[in-house]
Amino acid sequence: MARTYTLDPHKFDFDEIYADEIRDAENDALLQSLNDPHIVKYRAKTIKSGNVLEVEVYPIWDTHTSTSRARKTKESREAQKRLNYKNAVKSVVRLINTNFTDSDFWATFTYDNAHLPKTYKEAQREVAKFIRRLKHYAERHNFAPLKYVYWTEFENDEKKGKKRIHHHIVTNFADRDKMEDLWGNGGRNNVRRLVADESGYEGMARYCMKDPKGLKRYVASKNLKKPQITISDTKFTRRKVNRIFYEKVNPTAVFEGLYKGYQMTDINKKTSEYTTGAYLYIKMRRKE
Q: pLDDT averaged over the chain?
């Protein structure tokens, strides 16, 4: 419905009217996006990793031509770069939540000056040798097969004369003190128990994956289990998703009703500037 304004020259506020018009335009665009007739269904992708359950709900269309919107190439590349990083973080978080518990450890290992690697490759070789020592010790002492995820951060700023190298590792190696002994490269090292919160070990993993100034990549053992992923095209209709998006129903009741034994801890609702429809991301945790 169009707004009516009284043009009192002493009270006329262009900014307020302009803001109202922007809101009206945004609401019209949102309605058009969510009610796109080419959206034939919504797909629900569930990812179970340890005690954490994630649900991603997104639209499926009957055509591609009506759903693609114009975008600048540069913005697209930057958006893709950010998306790749976010997906890499999600993959590591899920891998750790699936394979490790509060009985396991995460550690940070550094070097003293006598053992400091000169290059990133040298640092990678050194941590690989450390992993072999852990694996050999675990086999000799009847520990569980060694599982691990580790990161190497290498920053070498020649202008500042600064070289910063350390490794983060998450592992099920059973002896904290022996792990420190087997490192053998000096430095200030810190080994601590994993402590899960409502998101499992996401906080710790995100810290290890934080956008670095230098090189940082992760390596995982081959014996790690993959998160359990399922797809459903029948749980959500367009009407149901729109009601959740506009908060006409209680999302907690909806998702806890669909996924018994889990409690909802977070929900994120958004639309895309490139495609039509709503996007829902829900995080849940297994009830104790």
A: 84
CA geometry: angle 149, 195, 82, nearest 5 deg:
50
Q: Nearest CA to 88 among 151, 44, 170?
A: 151
Contacts (Cβ under 8 Å, ≥6 apart) of 268 = 280, 281, 282
pLDDT in tens, 154-177: 876 666 556 678 999 999 999 999
- Distance, CA of 6 to CA of 215 (rounded, Å): 61
- Alpha-carbon span 179 to 170, nearest angstrom: 12
C-alpha angle with apex 65: 59 to 69, nearest 5 degrees? 75
DSSP code of residue 12: -
DSSP state of 115: G
Asked if residues 283 and 275 have their Cβ atoms less than 8 Å apart, the reply is no
What is the rounded end-to-end Cα distance, in angstroms, of the chain? 50
Q: Give the strand order in the sheet containing 39-49.
A: 228-236, 39-49, 52-61, 278-286, 262-271
Give Cβ neighbours of residue 269 (< 8 Å, ≥ 6 apart): 244, 245, 278, 279, 280
Beta-strand ranges (E) seen in the chain are 39-49, 52-61, 105-109, 148-157, 162-171, 190-193, 215-220, 228-236, 262-271, 278-286
Would you say the C-alpha torsion 206, 211, 215, 217 has a positive or negative sign?
A: positive
